[in-house]
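We read letters as residues; the fold follows as tokens. Both lines appear below.
***
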Amino acid sequence: MLLVALGVSVYYLYIFWPREPVDLQIVPDTSNQGNTAVENELPSKQFYQNMRYQDKRITYSIAGSCSSDRISEMEEAFANLAALTVLEFERATTGDVLIKILCSDVAPEAGQENYFVAGEGGPSRVLNSTLYSVILEGKISLFREDRCEGAKVATHELLHALGFDHNNNEDSILYPTLKCEQEIDSEIIDSINLIYQPESLPDLFLFSTTATKSGRYLNFNIEVLNQGLRESVPTKVSVYSEDELVDNFDIGAVSIGSRKILTVENLRLPGDTNKIVFAVDEENKVNELFENNNEAVLRLIAQG
């Protein structure tokens, strides 16, 4: 299931002043557009692009129905993966946990006695933040005792819960069919370390900017998107005419994957204006993944 957070609208309406005839046209200037994409080419395939939990530290719980052997296998899988990657795993007995492990017995179907489904795993709740597919919760179900040493089944399902799909390498732990000699291959390790390299931070981005001008009065609509990994602290959008600050607008905190819409009518500009600048978080209160995509510039060009 893919969850997408909905935006919140912030609306400001200024006192209506008599407006002069329209004589200028506003066109975007993207010459200083910053980086707005995570360019990850992961060696190992994922269910969705750039899938990860918010933090490197991931909590988990194991159901009481799991036998001591299955608990030991699951704990071994967590320990092995933590030793090879930047991830940390912590077992929790109370509160919200990120990965839930369940256990049950599933009998083989008639004619399938020589084959069995050892387990299932994968993300159960995912939020698209634009830069990342943020895993909010993962689940693992262990159906059978592992026939191999080294917690192969538990490791296979754990990697699914981390967002990784099957691959075509028969020697890899992520091959669809279990073989006891399979290992966590280097592509999986490299992919995990790469996707979790960035800090768990928000990233505010001026997603859309439109404006019209009548005489000295400006109407505009802008959308601020948080395309990062964590909710931002409350911040503001600043509007400049040339280098002169016209006004600041509070937009509050922006949650992961959501947009704040700021609509303003009849904002009076000082004197002659040839350039409008919109800047989000100009005071740098928000520690972000990218600091170079917080500004949009509009140039004023005479019609005709």
Notes: The chain has three helices and 16 strands.
